[in-house]
Amino acid sequence: MTAWYQRWGPWLTLEGCNDGALLANVVEALQPAVLVLPVRALDPDRPLEAGLLAAVLPLDAAPLPSTQGCETPEDAVATALLACELTGLSRVLIDVGCSLRPGGPRLPDVEGLLEACRALREHDLELAASCTSDPVICQRLGQLGCRVLLPQATPHALPGLVSGLDDATVVARPSGPTTDTALALIEAGARATLVGPWVWKTPDPEAVARSLALVHRAASSDGRVMAPRATPR
Questions:
Q1: What's the CATH number where 175 sits?
Q2: Which residues have a Cβ under 8 Å from the Cβ of 217 and sit 6 or more positions away?
Q3: Residue 97 lies in a domain
Q4: Does 69 fall in a domain?
Q5: pLDDT in tens, 39-98
Q6: H or E stretch covering 38
Q7: Contacting residues for 219 by C-beta, under 8 A, at least 6 apart
Q8: Distance from C-alpha of 168 to C-alpha of 149, rounded to nearest angstrom
Q9: Distance CA 27, CA 42 (A)
Q10: Which letter, b or e, does each residue of 193-205 get, where b requires 16 or more Cβ atoms within 10 Å of its Cβ?
Q11: Nearest Cα residue to 227 out of 195, 194, 186, 188
Q12: pTM value?
C-alpha cells in the first residue's frame, strides 16, 4: 500500500480558511493528496470550525494534524500527542516558531523543532517537519526519523538539500501562488508543493487551485512524481 506521504498530488493547508463552501470548492479544484489541519487554530466546539472539520473528514485526501502556532517544543509535543489522540492518527506535522513582536512575522525555531522531534521519537509516530532550507538541519531531522520535510526553499537551493537526504520525502513550501515556481520546485526534486495560507487571500482561490493541480498533474505524467493515489493509511 502506498504510504500517505507518497501519494500523488499537492498538499493543502486549512490555515487561514474561514469558509466551508470555499474550502470544498478549492479541494474539488486542487484534488490534494494531503490536507494539513492546524490543530490549535481549529476549535471543534465553534460552529464555523466544526463545519470545516466536517467538510474535511469524508475527503479522499489524507488528513495531517499540524502543531502550527506552537511557540515552544514542549507545547508542540503536547499538541502533537493530543492531536493524534483526538484524530486516531499516528502522523503529525511538527511546526515550532514565534514572532519577535506582536503581529510580526512568525519565525521558525530550529532548535525547538529538533527538540520536539527528538522527544516524539519514543511515541512511534510518523513525523513531518516544517523547516528551513538549511541542508544540515534537514539532515538532522531525517536522522530523527522525520518521514517528510517541508522546507521553504527556492528551486535553486532544493537540489542540494534533496541530495543530502536518504529516505525523507520533500514537499516544498512556495511563498506564493506562482505555477512556474511550483513546477520548478518539483523539477528540482520536491515530490509536491504545499498550497499555503496565501491561497485563501487571492482574488480567485479556485482558479489558483486549478492551475496548481495542472502543474502537479503534468509533473506526474512526465514521471517526476511517481506515486499513485491510494487510500490513506
A1: 3.20.20.70
A2: none
A3: yes
A4: yes
A5: 876 555 554 455 555 555 556 789 999 999 899 999 999 999 998 988 889 999 999 998
A6: strand 34-38
A7: 183, 186, 187, 225
A8: 7
A9: 18
A10: bbbbbbbbeeeeb
A11: 186
A12: 0.88
